[in-house]
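Posting this for the archive.
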Amino acid sequence: MGNPFCQQPGANGIYCSAQNQMNTPYSTGTRNCVPIPCPSNQDLSPNCKCTFPYSVNLQVFPSEKIKFNPSEIAILGFLLSNQKRQPPDGFGPYSFKASEYAAFAVIIGASMAGFVAALLIIGACVYAIRERRRVERLMEQSKPFATWYSSKSSGSISVPQLNGPRSFTYDELNYSTNKFSESNCIGCGGFGKVYKGTFDTGQVVAIKRSQPGSVQGGLEFKTEIELLSRVHHRNLVSLVGFCFDQGELILVYEYVPNGSLKQCLTGESGVHLDWKRRLRVALGAAKGLTYLHELVNPPIIHRDIKSNNILLDEQLNAKVADFGLSKPMDKSQKDQEITQVKGTMGYLDPEYFLTQQLTEKSDVYSFGVLLLELLTGKKPIDKGRYIVREVKVTMDKTKDLYDLHGLLDPRIGLGTSLGGFEKFVGLALKCVEDSGVNRPAMSEVVKEIECVMQQAGANLNVDSFTDSSSFDGGSGASQPPCSNDSFFNYSGSSMPSHVEPK
């Protein structure tokens, strides 16, 4: 209608009469076919053929204003793309191709410029915030006790109020150790020497005194005080108090008479650890770590699990110690990159070392190395040989004790039945998987060690044995059955027994 040709005399073509509109929408979209390349002077039609299209420049003008708004352009494009008028025979389908709307180009250009500027401003703000936090961390590390001083003018110390640990004077600790006599020295480490002290009340304590130039410094001292003042569990060493007096950095712990696990494995302490006792030590340490990872809010990653930091009390209960490198991890720090990797070589998670990404699975790796150390009695790195690689290369699952006889500690009781040995080795190797996502959670580790103890005939109903000579396990008949594949089936839906705080 309105075609100039139809206005000529005698024109009576079908194009000059009104056509009935189809009720069914007609789409000009390309049919469901695989696009093919076309010569440069041809275009792919909606029928998926290379053709020479006839282009008509269609301009649509707004009626009462100078430009269309975005919603109107969208409606117009939809109507033209979904035409209801069927083209005459011999003509292919219409193809709608819209060009850029000039009014929008200006708006979009301005918007993009504003967007880029906003991104630059946001980026600068994020960088400034990160730099400020980095500087604050460096300031905190250089002056970890800044908040412990009430004022710069007086220089007086205002130690924060903590639940449990008390603040000792230097004179009190100096007197309790007989002036830090070498006869009372019971150990040493990166922080300094450890002395046995006795107060007038008869209480015996372990006193760790920082030495000038020690590997660990004030930040670790402050971290350990603040962490141990809020965590309480039977398998964590207890902090009795501290001394921040006369320039001294001293920590006071409960006295653990049987020394460290390392001293027991080397024979230095004189405590004999057979297979069942080693299992119980592993279970206690695992429960302590489970508490830190899953029951403390925010969770705490220890970062320095090793045999030297597992202490044994008079009943050979394991207690995790030395929290100087520990780090609380709230939800926002779940995947935070730690700029400085900390830990002990041999126990250090290689994934954490390479990526600087700290998670609780880094502790799991260190614990796996500890389990292998319990089996072999050897240091993680001994004469250039790494215990993890040595076990993996040597083991043969088709042979007795996985053919690890040459690596095992003879004092473990090789002449006796080592119930659950294979499961224990499998657990250790699962903990030292290269990828953290393939390692179990510590609650799963606790569950599996309990299964191993049942197979070994150890009685899980007793929390500890009375001394190093009285424990002989038990039949374990009262324990629930533990299948061979329990570790892989454990869902972690319920916490293992005895990981609650004391």
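Residues 19-28, 149-158, 464-481, 486-502 have pLDDT under 50 and may be disordered. Residues 60-142 form one domain.
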